[in-house]
Amino acid sequence: xxxxxxxxxxxxxxxxxxxxxxxxxxxxxxxxxxxxxxxxxxxxxxxxxxxxxxxxxxxxxxxxxxxxxxxxxxxxxxxxxxxxxxxxxxxxxxxxxxxxxxxxxxxxxxxxxxxxxxxxxxxxxxxxxxxxxxxxxxxxxxxxxxxxxxxxxxxxxxxxxxxxxxxxxxxxxxxxxxxxxxxxxxxxxxxxxxxxxxxxxxxxxxxxxxxxxxxxxxxxxxxxxxxxxxxxxxxxxxxxxxxxxxxxxxxxxxxxxxxxxxxxxxxxxxxxxxxxxxxxxxxxxx
Length: 286
Prior knowledge:
Layout: E1 6-13, E2 17-26, E3 31-36, H1 45-55, E4 59-69, H2 71-74, H3 80-96, H4 105-108, H5 122-169, H6 173-191, H7 197-211, H8 214-231, H9 238-257, H10 262-282
Helix pairs in contact: 1-5, 5-8, 5-10, 6-7, 8-9, 9-10
């Protein structure tokens, strides 16, 4: 089990500079990727997305890349000899042609050979960025798994608490139905002295069947068994658990609707509280 909420921060030093990856993940029904890359490295977004899709199933993911190039790569070394020659030529022209405009330094930088910058190997930089991204994703998944293990324990604890509530109710259920039947006979007897015992027995049996919650308790147990089974599986299980929460809640509501005793109502309320606590945790699961 993995949580959708996690954080990864990876710093890596290379020959050409520093790479920093920050990845934040929060809850989202589907996979939503938001990249923040330096403009010069936007071309890497597609291969980065492909790597994310291979390792991430769900969540809203914010991925930030920061680069700090070494000084030798950040500056633009100037060919001073060539610059002096160009300056001499410019001065000569301006002496001959006083009406000549001033030279724009930015245009001068475009003169072939003036800038001697040995640009960093972009292929190597791209390779380093992709490699460190794989490491950052691994760190994120490890964080997700650690938190997922904690979520699994919380869910299993609630499932055990639900079983305890069901076990509390199951043994007394037959006596509750018997008491209800007896009360029903007494009330009918108070209203009429002439009772068709066969018709009364049939009506009592029908009503008893309607208020019998044994089937709901059995289904609750079955759904809880499935919750435990799914919790121990790997991969994307959040949607299946969310569906099981809906089924558990439906049975707990039916239990409350059929209540014939305050103890049944109390169990129904306790079950719904535990289900809601489980649902809050399930919302964080991949």
